[in-house]
Amino acid sequence: MLLLLLFLISCPYCQFQATITQSPPFLILRPGDPVSLGCTVSNAGVPTMYWYRQGIRDRTLTLLLWSVTVNSTQELTLTHFKADRKTGSDFTLRTEKIMDSDSGVYYCAWSSTEEQ
């Protein structure tokens, strides 16, 4: 523990590394239930944010929605899902009625590109 603490103290740039948090960490729902999944990115400016789903049956990773900036979302599939991005760091995936075919693991991701 002492070594770890010393490393963190001697690593001033570490506090600026971006982190991503999804909430809640897991859900068990019944068909027809509403759902809202939150995603927050810290220390990343205003990144492009994404929601993916990995299906239970086929294990395929599918891009569902993405957002380049605040109040802007694009969707590819699952039109009954919507996304909200009211701030640069928060991206919420929601639906009023979940379906059996929506079963899977949902991932939030982010990317940042800089003009050169």
Automatic annotation (TrEMBL):
Q: Does the keyword Signal feature in the UniProt annotation? A: yes
Q: In the UniProt record, does the keyword Signal occur?
A: yes
- One BP term from GO: immune system process
Choose one Gene Ontology CC annotation of this protein and give it: plasma membrane
Cite the Ig-like domain residue spans from the record: 18-116
Query: Any idea which UniProt keywords this protein has?
Result: Immunity, Signal
User: Which parts of the chain span the membrane according to its record?
Assistant: none
- Signal sequence annotation: 1-16
Q: Which Gene3D superfamilies match?
A: Immunoglobulins (2.60.40.10)
What is the name listed in the Swiss-Prot or TrEMBL entry for this protein?
Answer: Ig-like domain-containing protein
What is the protein's species of origin? Eleutherodactylus coqui (Puerto Rican coqui)
- Where is the organism placed in the taxonomic lineage, from the top? Eukaryota, Metazoa, Chordata, Craniata, Vertebrata
